[in-house]
TrEMBL record:
Keywords: Cytoplasm, GTP-binding, Magnesium, Metal-binding, Molybdenum cofactor biosynthesis, Nucleotide-binding, Transferase. One of its GO terms (molecular function) is GTP binding. Residues 9-169 form the MobA-like NTP transferase domain. Mg(2+) binds at residue 107. It comes from Haloterrigena turkmenica (strain ATCC 51198 / DSM 5511 / JCM 9101 / NCIMB 13204 / VKM B-1734 / 4k) (Halococcus turkmenicus). Its main location: cytoplasm. It is found in: Cytoplasm. The keyword Nucleotide-binding applies. Belongs to the MobA family. It catalyses: Mo-molybdopterin + GTP + H(+) = Mo-molybdopterin guanine dinucleotide + diphosphate. The lineage of its organism: Archaea, Methanobacteriati, Methanobacteriota, Stenosarchaea group, Halobacteria. PANTHER family: MOLYBDENUM COFACTOR GUANYLYLTRANSFERASE. This is Probable molybdenum cofactor guanylyltransferase. Signal peptide: none annotated.
């Protein structure tokens, strides 16, 4: 990997996992490995500067879950907790030291590194590459952004009336990637684990 092709990574973990129950899904065990560690180890294959965004009160458990992982991450904690994923994206992207950076949620343990490389290719010269599914939904938490442009768009969006992530995307020059462009990418890449039921189902499928 040459330096100009170097990709950063941000793992978003600052949410309260309310649908998951009492515990933090970031560090939940999936078939013997904490979910966030699965995400970090997959990101480590395509990135060389990695930032984990979380709250101060999560640091100890997340550090323990990531001890000895394939790429030692840096941590950027939220100055104000519970401001939503857009605030987490901003904090992470401000801390990362690469022009282009993959942003991935901690609850997407099957993220396909090949997708992130494709998005990196497509993002070059633009402000980012985001998959838009057939239902119109943007996969904003498994996307590649030009870090400074997206961080600024997040800040502006959080200061305005419409605080949705798509409002931030409208402020920058992104490439939309369709589902048809995802040949060779794992079908499970966008699977998110929001509930205990989803975790149990994922575990069942991994055992098969
Ligand atoms: N920094 C930060 N990250 C967040 C926040 N809310 C969600 N996230 C992250 O954004 C990603 C997607 O969010 P969700 O799947 O809704 O996670 P969540 O909010 O923890 O879970 P629920 O409470 O069940 O919605 C996850 O990686 C979360 O950690 C937040 O308020 N601040
Ligand atoms: Mg949420």
């Amino acid at each position: 990997m040459t330096s100009e092709r170097s990709l950063g990574g941000v793992v978003l973990a600052g949410g309260y996992s309310t649908r998951f129950g009492e515990s933090d899904k970031a560090v939940a065990d999936l078939a013997g490995t904490p979910m966030i560690r699965r995400v970090v180890d997959r990101l480590a294959t395509v990135t060389d500067d990695l930032v984990v965004n979380c709250r101060d009160d999560q640091l100890e458990a997340i550090r323990a879950a990531l001890a000895g992982s394939d790429l030692e991450p840096r941590y950027a904690t939220d100055p104000v907790p519970d401001r939503g994923p857009l605030a987490g994206i901003q904090v992470g992207l401000e801390a990362v030291d690469r022009e282009y950076t993959a942003v991935v949620a901690c609850d997407m343990p099957f993220v396909d590194p090949a997708l992130l490389e494709t998005l990196h290719d497509r993002a070059c010269g633009r402000d980012g590459a985001v998959v838009r599914l057939e239902d119109g939904w943007y996969q904003t938490t498994q996307a590649v952004y030009r870090a400074d442009a997206m961080a600024e768009a997040c800040a502006e969006t959080l200061d305005s009336e419409d605080k949705r992530i798509v409002a931030a995307l409208e402020r920058i020059d992104i490439v939309e990637v369709g589902e048809n462009d995802l040949e060779g990418v794992s079908e499970r890449t966008f699977e998110g684990i929001d509930t205990q039921e989803a975790l149990a189902e994922a575990e069942r499928r991994m055992r098969r």
